[in-house]
Amino acid sequence: MDQNLLRSYFATVYEVLTDSGALRLSIDGEIVKDEGGLPDLLRTRFAILTAYNPRSMLLPRRVNEGRHQVMRDLLVLGCYRVEHCVGFEDEPEGVWREPAWIAHGIDREEAIHFGRTFRQNTILYCADSRPELIVTDPTCDKVGKSYQGNWRVRS
User: Fold this and answer.
1) Residue 87 in contact with residue 53, Cβ under 8 Å?
2) At residue 108, what are phi and psi to the nearest 5 degrees?
3) How do residues 107-153 score in pLDDT, each as one tens digit?
């Protein structure tokens, strides 16, 4: 995988709404020694999935929104609790923002399947408080190859 693309994936900030307010996080943090100090969400099993801009190709907004809604409907039909989140660049001049879904309790292999089906380069998967970036597009790397991250809660 291209190292610049990999760095940008690790630096992506995800904003998630929780019961205690907005939570901003990324996977470019230091090793977490006390998982009990992490927010509740980060101690569960989930995937962050999107259907926007397959294989990094910019699509018209209406097409992206339609694909994204289809993904949500399939996740709900699979009996997953689905919540909205958004990924973005945390740079003052950054303009990139991409809606995503948090699929709670989804199995790793099924999450990879969603990433492949919707032609995403990678997905973000979390189990046992450990996030991993998983390749889902064979043009980037071997499907299933993962890059281990560490949670970073941002203010």
Assistant:
1) no
2) -55, -50
3) 999 999 999 999 999 999 999 999 999 999 999 999 999 999 999 99
Residue range of the domain that includes 147? 3-154
Torsion angles phi and psi, residue 24, rounded to 5: -110, 130
Residue 24 neighbours by CB distance under 10 Å: 14
Exposed/middle/buried for residue 120 (C-beta within 10 Å: 0-12, 13-18, 19+)? buried
Distance in angstroms (rounded) separating the CA atoms of residues 17 and 93:
24
Q: How many domains does the chain have?
A: 1
Query: How is 22-90 classified by DSSP, letter by letter?
Result: EEEEESB-PPPS-GGGS-GGGGS-EEEE--SSGGG----HHHHHHHHHHHHHHHHHTT-EEEEEEEE--
The CA distance from 155 to 138, in Å, is: 35
Q: What is the pLDDT of residues 82-102, one digit of tens each?
A: 999 999 988 767 678 899 999
For the purposes of burial, counting CB atoms within 10 Å of the CB of 104, is it exposed (0-12), middle (13-18) or buried (19 or more)?
middle
**Mean pLDDT for all residues in the chain:** 94
Bridge partners, 25 (sequence order): 14, 153
- Positive or negative torsion for Cα 20, 122, 47, 82: positive
* pLDDT computed for residue 53 by the predictor: 95
